[in-house]
Structures are given as structure tokens and as C-alpha cells.
């Protein structure tokens, strides 16, 4: 089976989490750059990466790389690539996205136009035609130019991988599913430990936790662009990946996953989303304010995405919310708190300095993932999943 050079983009700051996921699938990492992890694999790898990766945004097939400081160099570089090895005579091809950072070429629309023209000229010469029907399968192209280095990809995914398909309804400022999964994977939470989200909104963090606990593949119930890329990727690769995903699901025993919110409307959406994801029986949602946060259990986890300035609320209400969270967390003396926010006064309001924090970009918002560690259960050593061998 043919080997491909593959790249999976992710949120900035989560490269190590995605790298661990890819290695756990059995593939060799070839490069790690800001917001991108590259690896090598065959058609099975394309299917499995799309279906199993929780923190990636998409899976891209590399067509080539070259330097370009002018549009003529861009045209010649694109034209020199072996497009006929990827795109059939009736394939639909276009530049889905062009991005440029610190490069001479920066106009996205001009880059898209030049790339399309060069592709047409290359394929016209190879297929001996000047008019392409483009009535076949889709082959979207993505171009990234960084410091004049042009990276050219085919997008095997289509809609971003964070769109699992279960979230039909959502509250205000929802968290992307792949970011929610990353927050879980950056913690040592396991199925036998309590998990509580006091700002659960549409339930994304808890739903992703349940799917992780069950080893339920996030992409097993959706479609991908490359499913129809015959003969480039054998359709049987997708069948095998789905069969593997179904075999890996393990039923839950007794879990304690709880989500609180003050908005009954978003709680209704959360319950429906959990139902769509097939995990509703494992999560308990209830209408409760953060000031009423409590639990009788020990050694639990709070993993949450509270309001912050760019999302919701004014300064006074934010300060009050974080102080209430801090006060209730203090009472849960054996618990750990994992919190993502851009609110700069978060640690002060919580009432203690975080043991660790990690910079993560939530879209264009620079946030911090604050980790307030509690004691570990007697005789037990927990490690974040990304650090486990």
C-alpha cells in the first residue's frame, strides 16, 4: 500500500497531545511545528487518523513543498507537482484555503487563483484536455506559506474533525470538541474518578470524557472527503477502521460524571447532545449555580471552561464567578481543578497559584489552562495521559 506524508493541524499549544495520539495509533512522527504534527502512513493511516484522532482538526496529504517569493515561482512550483497521481480526470479540485505568514506572497485570493491555474495547466498536459468536467469526487487543496516555504496539501477530512456530529444544539460560546478532548487528555482523569464541570454549557467536556473513557472513536459516525478517493485510498481502509472502532468500544461500569449550569435551556441541549453521542446514561446534568458546587466524594476532578471576557460577562460578574468557584473548590480539599480561561485575574480569584499552566489558543483567543493539583489517592500514582509510556 502506498505511503503518504500526512499532516494533522491542531490548536496551538496542543502539539504534544496530538503527537502522543498519533504515536499511540502506531505511526512515525516526522515533524512537529506550531499547530501541526506530521507523520507517515498508508491509506489505512488516513482512515484511522480521521476516525480515531480526538485533538486534530483535519488530516492532510502532503503533495509537496518548495520555496516561492514571487507568483511566477509559485506557479512553476505548483505546476511541477505530480497532480495526476492524486486527482482523476473528472475530479473536482479547488483551493479551499490559502494562508501566509511572514512571506513575500500574502494575498490569499491571488495565491488561490495562481495555484488553480497551475494545477489546470499541469493536468491539461497530462490528460490531453483543456476543459475539465469536474463532476467527480472532491479534492480540496490547502496551501500554507510560512517564511516563503510553500506547503501543499490535499484535505482528506472535509468538515473539521471537531464536528463529531453529536452536537446539534449548543449554548453561547461553545468549546470545540477537539479542544475539550485535549483538556481531558492533559489531565490524569480516569473512569474510576469523579469528573465535574460546573459550567457545562452544552456538555462538551463531559461528553468527550465519556467517549474517551469508553474508547469510542470520535469520527466513527461521520463522513470524510477521502472516502471516495479511489484508487488513491482503498475503500476497504475505511471499512477496516470503522470495524476496529466498533470493536474497541468498552461499556462503562459505574461512573460519576456531573455537569452543572444555571441555564435550563443549555442543559436541555446538553442532554440531547449526550443522547446523540450515545453516552447520556453516564452523565448527570442538573441546574445548579457555581456557588452551590459540592460533592461528597473524594479525589475528584473539576475540568471546566468558565466564562471569560472575550466570551461572556463583565469584569464585576467575572470576578464574582471565579471567587465563588475558588471558595467551593477550597471546600473540596482532596480535589483537583483544571480550568481554561483568558481571564488574567483567575488565579487571584481562585485564591491560590496554579501548580502548572499551559498556553493554548482557543481560536484566536490566547488562553491558559490552569492546573490546581489535589492530593492523589493513597498508593496511587497518576500521570497525564500524554506522559504515559
List the keywords:
VC0802-like, about 30% helix, about 400 residues, seven-stranded mixed beta sheet, single chain, Rossmann fold, 14 strands, alpha/beta, 2 domains
Task: Please explain how this structure is put together.
The strands form two sheets. Strands 2-3-1-4-7-6-5 form a seven-stranded mixed sheet. The protein has a seven-stranded mixed sheet with strand order 10-9-8-11-12-14-13. By secondary structure, the protein is α/β, with parallel strands linked by helices. The two termini are 29 Å apart. Helix content is 31%, strand content 23%. It folds into two domains: 4-155, VC0802-like (2-Layer Sandwich), CATH 3.30.2130; 177-215 and 250-387, Rossmann fold, CATH 3.40.50.150. It has helices at residues 15-24, 43-52, 71-79, 108-127, 177-185, 204-214, 235-248, 264-277, 315-331, 346-350, and strands at 4-9, 28-33, 36-41, 60-67, 92-101, 138-146, 149-155, 195-197, 257-261, 283-287, 301-304, 336-341, 356-362, 365-372. The longest helix is centred in the N-terminal third of the chain and has 20 residues, at 108-127.
**Rough shape?**
elongated
Reading side by side through the largest sheet, how are the strands ordered? Answer: 2-3-1-4-7-6-5
Question: How far do the termini sit from each other?
Answer: 29 Å
Number of helices: 10
Please identify the structural class as seen in this structure. Answer: alpha/beta
Task: Indicate the mean pLDDT.
Answer: 93
How many domains make up the coordinates? 2
CATH superfamily annotation of the largest domain = Vaccinia Virus protein VP39
Task: Indicate the low-confidence ranges by residue numbers.
Answer: 385-389
CATH topology of the largest domain, which one?
Rossmann fold
Question: What characterizes the major β-sheet?
Answer: 7 strands, mixed
Order of helices and strands: EHEEHEHEHEEHEHHEHEEHEHEE
Number of strands: 14
Percent in strands: 15-25%
Q: Helical amount among residues, as a percent range?
A: 25-40%
